[in-house]
């Protein structure tokens, strides 16, 4: 059964919604009374999420299976977003990481990362803005990373694309100041999800204190939005300190660390 549709409930669009931070955004937003448009590649997992959210929270959830690194899929979603008058929130969360040197990487995989992390969020944001501006309310959340403040051997394009998302968010927030539309660059550190499993990263190699949970990250994001907090949202005190150091550290010191990592690859 589909939950009853309400013309007054706000709509949130969440990409990368089937797992991790994206799924947690769906859970917390549904609990707050948002209808949802959930986007990811796995249609079966999206359908399971729809049933769970509609049963628990009596909201309406529409499923949109898509690979946003593909132009046709992104274009279809852009059209849907632009035609959603109840739109209030866009969560640009879809993404993935890779490991290894650029020289050895799959060109198609790297190109897909650039399209997914930069072009798709920009297009969805641009499609949403006329609707949000017409109502003088709403928000765009771009899920970036603390990696956006550094660069790293073995993660060249991941760091670069996340840096784009953070800078894009800061510039757009300045452009929209005074309009009632908010922008946030959410920059989490290590977060327990399927993200690192897909990269075949051994989570046990990192100390437990470095990890946060997806619920913690999303609560920090939504709390900052509710308080009209800073554009760059870094969940966790330890990561706030790390980002503060990175932002004031000479780039040369980051380069020394990047070269040391490169020698160890």
CATH class: Alpha Beta
What is the topology, as strand order, of the major beta sheet? 3-2-1-4-5-6-9
**Architecture, CATH level 2?**
3-Layer(aba) Sandwich
The coarse overall form would be: globular
Q: State the helix count.
A: 9
Q: How many distinct domains? A: 1
Helix content: 40-55%
Could you report the average pLDDT, rounded to the nearest whole number? 88
Straight-line N-to-C gap: 52 Å
Quick one: biggest sheet? 7 strands, parallel
- Residue ranges: pLDDT <50 for 5 or more in a row? 253-265
The name of the CATH topology is Rossmann fold
Walkthrough of the structure:
With 265 residues, the chain is of the alpha/beta class. It has a single domain (11-264), classed as Rossmann fold (3-Layer(aba) Sandwich), CATH 3.40.50. It contains nine helices and nine strands. A seven-stranded parallel sheet has the order 3-2-1-4-5-6-9, with helices on both faces. A two-stranded parallel ribbon has the order 7-8. α1 runs parallel beside α2, α1 (20-31) crosses α7 (214-226) and α4 (107-135) runs parallel beside α5. It is globular and about 50 Å long. The model is unreliable at 253-265 (pLDDT under 50).
What is the topology?
Elements: E1 11-15, H1 20-31, E2 35-40, H2 43-57, E3 61-65, H3 71-82, E4 87-92, H4 107-135, E5 139-143, H5 156-175, E6 182-186, E7 191-192, H6 194-198, E8 212-213, H7 214-226, E9 232-233, H8 237-248, H9 251-264
Parallel strand pairs: 1-2, 1-4, 2-3, 4-5, 5-6, 6-9, 7-8
């Amino acid at each position: 059964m589909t939950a009853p549709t309400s013309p007054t409930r706000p709509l949130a669009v969440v990409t990368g919604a089937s797992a991790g931070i994206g799924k947690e955004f769906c859970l917390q937003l549904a609990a707050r009374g948002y209808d949802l448009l959930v986007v990811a590649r796995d249609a079966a997992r999206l359908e399971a999420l729809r049933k769970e959210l509609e049963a628990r929270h009596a909201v309406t959830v529409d499923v949109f299976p898509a690979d946003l690194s593909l132009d046709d899929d992104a274009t279809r979603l852009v059209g849907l977003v632009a035609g959603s008058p109840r739109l209030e929130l866009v969560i640009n969360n879809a993404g993935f990481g890779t490991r290894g040197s650029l020289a050895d990487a799959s060109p198609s995989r790297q190109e897909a990362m650039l399209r997914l992390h930069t072009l798709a969020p920009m297009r969805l944001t641009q499609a949403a803005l006329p609707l949000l501006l017409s109502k003088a309310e709403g928000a765009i959340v771009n899920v970036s990373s603390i990696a956006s403040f550094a660069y790293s051997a073995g993660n060249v394009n991941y760091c670069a694309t996340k840096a784009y998302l953070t800078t894009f968010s800061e510039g757009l927030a300045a452009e929209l100041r005074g309009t009632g539309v908010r922008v946030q660059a959410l920059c989490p550190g290590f977060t327990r999800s399927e993200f690192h499993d897909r990269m075949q990263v051994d989570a046990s190699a990192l100390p437990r204190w470095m990890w946060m949970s997806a619920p913690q990250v999303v609560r920090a994001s939504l709390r900052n939005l509710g308080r009209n907090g800073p554009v760059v949202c870094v969940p966790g005190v330890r990561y706030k300190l790390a980002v503060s150091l990175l932002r004031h550290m000479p780039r040369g010191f980051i380069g020394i660390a990047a070269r040391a990592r490169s020698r160890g690859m």
